[in-house]
Design a protein that fits this description.
10 helices; about 0% strand; mainly alpha
Length: about 240
Amino acid sequence: MIELERPRDAGALLRDAFSVYRRHFWTFLAIGAIVVVPSELIVSGVGLDQLSARYDATPSFAEAAIPGAVSYLVVAPLVSAICVFALRSVASGDSPRAREAVVKGFEMFTPLFFAVLLAALGIALGLLLIVPGIYLFVRWYFVPQVVVMESQQATAALRGSSRLVEGAWWRTFGLIVLVNVAALLAALVIGSPFTAAADSTDRAAWSLAGQIVAAVITQPFGALYSTLLYFDLRQRRRGA
């Protein structure tokens, strides 16, 4: 059992996210796999032909951008939505049920997708000048949680996320950087044997396998951390 509605510093966010993840590891691993595996196989494996292609250590812009866009628009929001439902079960004292959380998460996909797409368009425009894009990325970071927890859609979800971050942009930015650096380092460690195998066999499938395994493991942890940060910001605003 975990208390959601309370402030947490950086250490508590990492500790509590890891504690929940470790205690229910196989459930969250299954959640990650259900979303990540088919997405990666369809987009990168079939669409970009990585299941049969030779290994290229320097992929083209499209080969990097397309999976990244799918991850931002589909994979990460869906994993976040599913993990919100699973985390709420943990908070109520129950064991999270992957199947029930997945069904509820997928039921939220339509409003979730359009809200995240709207945020992505705004961020992309802002990135033309770099700084505005980074600013908007942080302000709209909690769109998935707002859609699920507050039943907000489209522009209302963007406003809801912005209200959470208001007055705490720099702190939020630092905490987002922290978890993403941790996830990146973990992904590099997990993927390195697969990259070595891809290089030695000249088969891109090994590299794809490493990407899938790393994403399956790291995406749920990132979603748990982000959701706990969402509750942290919400509680701080209520106490302000």
